[in-house]
Design goal:
217 residues; alpha+beta; Glutaredoxin; 4 strands; 9% strand
Length: 217
Amino acid sequence: MTTATTPSPLASPADSAVLSATVYVDPSCPFAWITSRWLAEVEAGSGLAVDLELMSLSAVNEGRELEAWYRDYNERAWAPARVAAAILATPAYASQWACFYAAFGQRRHVGGDRDDARNIALTLAELGLPAELSDAAGDCSWDADLRRRTATATAPLAGEGGTPVVHVNGRAFFGPVLTEIPRGAMAVRLWQAMTVLTTTPGFSEVKGARDDQLRTH
């Protein structure tokens, strides 16, 4: 006669060594926006500490063959990222980076405002930051800083992937790529699943079909 055993439950966040994560985002990327908002939900619903860092989609895709529409998208993405780099490079304003990202992203990704120059100006004014920071949008001297930040984000990926990049438990992953923002308990549950994957030796990648309809709010 065999005795049934109760399967052990999945580890809870308290059992995991993963207490922090870093997400690298480009202000123009809707997938980075969705992932960052998901992680904000996880941070609010668990003990996870999330650090938001800047990277550049434009820098990621330099030298890659792109369709004409996507090449144009990438060229326009330099501007908001340069302004973000200028904010981060100024000690008096660096603490406003996350607020800049949230306010700019709310208008662009949720409100649908694709006029980046207007959005940048409105965001700077909303945060009480100098309007002159908008001059960075057309200043390619910031691109070296953006390439450096992007290299930090993507180095563990050996050149693969795009935005967002999540660093967790000493490893880095492109994504997760989400088409909508998990909320509340579902957000934490997805994080638990990702924690299991990222702490499993040998795990590299998982990919499925992607819904073309993004839900960014």
